[in-house]
Amino acid sequence: MSTDTSSRSVTCQASPNIALIKYWGKRDEELILPDNDSLSITLDLTDMHSYTTVSTSPSMTCDTFYFEGVLQTKLSSRMQKVLGEVRRRAKDMQNQFVEIRSQNTFPASSGLASSASAYASLAIALTKLFNLDNPDATAAYLARIGSGSAIRSVYGGFVRWSSEGECLSSCVFPMEHWPDLRLIILIFNSSKKPVSSTDAMQRTRETSTLFSARLATVNDKIEKLIEAIRIKDFNTFAKIVMMDSSQFHAVCMDTYPPVIYLNEQSKHLIDLVHAYNETDENGAMKVAYTFDAGPNPFCFIREQHAEEFLRLLKYIYPTADNNVHKHVADSD
Ligand code: 2P0
Question: Is-annotated flag, keyword Hydrolase (predicted)?
Fold first, then answer.
């Protein structure tokens, strides 16, 4: 951070996260208050970060935003909302403008939502630049009003986003807690999703009758999943994660008009994983899938099975981008 009191600049980074128990539905669109708690893993990977630099100086005459080095013609309403909140909280920002420069070290086509890591890094940078009170909670709040799931990228490891009280997030376990847990991301299709998550979850709230049944089950699943993670019980972990993914997509299908994020390859992968899990002679689970609002599977697996499963994926899906083999945590 610059020591010049009139011109200042801060750069912060954050990583994407993948939900194990999905967030779907807002009870408050403006503040982005979720209908249910969610639980995720922040992908603390050396090559997947968003970086945001926020600068301010008396010579600036308006707020500006550069994405991947390109000046954007206008700030999105979400970004304006975040800056409005910072101005409300920071006395020394009332008459000052900012320049925001955001970039990702991973391509948008990687199948990972970059908005979570982008808003998390922006929120942390703004909190630092303007020295806002209660920095952890403030950064979480700012990230959330930018993009709901960004609130989980403010922390590393296993992160819970609460739907109660102030609806903030907290780290439940650091990533080092489960050193042999690995993640394989398979890219079947990297094109833009047919319906944005924001619009789709609103449509779900308005039309799905399964939605309320899902909400009634989420907290119990989260408690059971946290206990499974605590004792590193992969069988229970795998079952809960796969069932929540399928339930989320069933709710999307129950939305009218239906929101269909999975494709034929996704369904094929689901069958493949269950068949592969049957091959363990002790009946133990080897791998678990989860799908976000898209067709690309995120497969959790323990290190002992990772290479074998990756070979299988490369054989069965030779055209998919399956080189993305990431370690969630590295035991080295
Ligand atoms: C999640 N998703 O928990 C769920 C699972 C997609 C499927 O959070 O409107 O981009 O900004 O709050 O955060 C995607 O929703 O939506 C999401 P907004 P966001 O990761």
Answer: no
